[in-house]
């Protein structure tokens, strides 16, 4: 334990011990000490990964790296720092606790950078202006507690680590990282992404149950597990991380869970996603920037919303620590927790503890303010800024994850979900007869749900290409064109994306090319067919419904603020007769089909669409069969679309 002893001796004297990381992974009975020089790089592709077995590099990835994907952010210029691992030791947990400083962390001037009132106003604004206007399903807005640490920052961080090790439970990583320019200390509950033996894993966590230590209430937990807001919040981040898995795993991800993650001050619900992939681990990091649990969905527009409503850059909040290496067979490895429940301390002692809340259509400003306080509690107490800031802390609450009723409540969450994502799928399973050898082009409207849709279409037998809406390219050579989902107002006359997708659909309809339109694509198609578009009074974001689709009852998931409406089940259009599946109460059009084209307002690819694959299996043969869908409408208006509002 010579290196840890030397490190602690230097820190106690107020000297710089040199770069290091001290990490406990999950509930291991040991800590790992990594030492070595630090290098700053510009891009994730530049992160060094030297040869050799075991951990080779620990990258401290700031939120601003999201600009590598072309996404918006308040760019604060904080660096991507890499600790090149030249020393790696394992230290028993008891030994580490005995060596780490058992002293209070003294601070001054503690307070949130944004008051509770201001944060509540921001929450209300995002709910009204963003979710209410179709910009996305959920968004995470952060605030930070700031203070000044009195005494050597590294020593304070090591003392805080000792408290976290004693007080916190259920953390994925508990750690101190010192790069020489900053110290990070925290207990992150959430694996963002890992790669081991070619298996890519992600860990969406959402829903927060707050409890005061030993007073955890079983009845209250069961009410939390049945709360529609909490259930839908987890479903939405599950969908968003499945989109990422669809990019980095060859056959998409399989969903495992849900589970209850119990920590000292709160509990979360979580899923695990697993899929086989062969990408370089730095590409995996890039394609999964960053977790929807700390940004929102759809991802690209969530970053725009964050940039509009947050005052300052996020620094390392919502970024990741990424431990890269090789296994004994020479395969790349990756282990990357999300940088949440983490404090950053500057060499001058400036302390920052950022926390955020996930805003969904059911959110209330007061509830989200309370959630930020609860999430900060564990780190604040370890740093001496909260209640019970000294000593070993309260007795942990009894574990409830093994309670039969709790397990049943968790298992019940999967009942309405799509088995396509819950069951293991054989890569060579036969597709739908008649689709093998056919090709599809998916045009992405800035929502990577298209990656999940691509996996479903491939499972049905199609060869699939995905192309961004703004990327030019030929349509020849594709049997089917899918105009996909995305955020925004389909009625906008100035949005270049809407203009481009309308032009694409107009050309497809005029040429008689087989076309499927999904969500935003469906809304634009409906507008071209003469239907009126409306903003819903209450957004259908992450909403699951049973709907009648052309005489068959289907359970499907919606992510939409706008809808087309019609008062009849059929209409005549310039492109032929059209049949509508609609809500008889308000005329909202759930789906439409005509000669060679179809549209669905919901997302058949979503985990919320239990019958999504069945819907596609019904629609696709009709679209790809010569003459399919050309039955005459039984009653139509004379010379103009019937039922137009």
SSE inventory with pairings:
Elements lengths: L1 H11 L7 E6 L4 E6 L2 E4 L12 E8 L18 E5 L2 E6 H7 L6 E7 L3 H14 L8 E13 L2 H15 L5 E6 L4 E6 L2 E6 L2 E4 L2 E6 L7 H9 L1 H21 L5 E9 L3 E11 L4 H7 L8 E2 L1 H11 L10 E7 L5 E6 L4 E4 L4 E10 L5 H18 L21 H9 L6 H4 L16 E6 L4 H11 L3 E6 L11 E4 L12 H16 L3 E4 L1 H9 L3 E18 L2 E14 L4 E4 L2 E7 L6 E6 L2 E4 L11 H13 L21
Helix pairs in contact: 3-9, 4-9, 5-10, 6-12, 13-14
Describe the structure.
The strands form four sheets. Strands 1, 2, 6, 7, 8, 9, 10, 16, 19 and 20 form a ten-stranded antiparallel sheet that branches. It is built from 15 helices and 30 strands. It folds into two domains: 2-412, Anthranilate synthase (4-Layer Sandwich), CATH 3.60.120; 429-624, Rossmann fold (3-Layer(aba) Sandwich), CATH 3.40.50.880. A hairpin with a 6-residue loop joins strand 28 (576-582) and strand 29. The radius of gyration is 26 Å and the shape is elongated. Helix 5 packs parallel to helix 10 (404-412) and helix 13 (496-511) packs across helix 14. It has 645 residues and is an alpha+beta fold.
Total strands: the figure is 30
Kindly report how far apart the N and C termini lie: 77 Å
Mean pLDDT: 88
User: In terms of structural class, how would the helical and strand content be classed?
Assistant: alpha+beta
Number of helices: 15
The helix content is 25-40%
Just name the CATH architecture of the largest domain: 4-Layer Sandwich
Q: How would you sum up the major sheet?
A: 10 strands, antiparallel
Strand content: 25-35%
CATH topology of the largest domain: Anthranilate synthase
- What is the CATH class designation of the largest domain? Alpha Beta
| Poorly predicted parts | 387-392, 628-645
Tell me, what's the shape? elongated
The count of domains is 2
CATH superfamily caption of the largest domain: Anthranilate synthase
Whole-number radius of gyration? 26 Å
Domain Glutamine amidotransferase: 441-618
Keywords: Glutamine amidotransferase, Lyase
Catalytic activity: chorismate + L-glutamine = anthranilate + pyruvate + L-glutamate + H(+)
Domain Chorismate-utilising enzyme C-terminal: 116-375
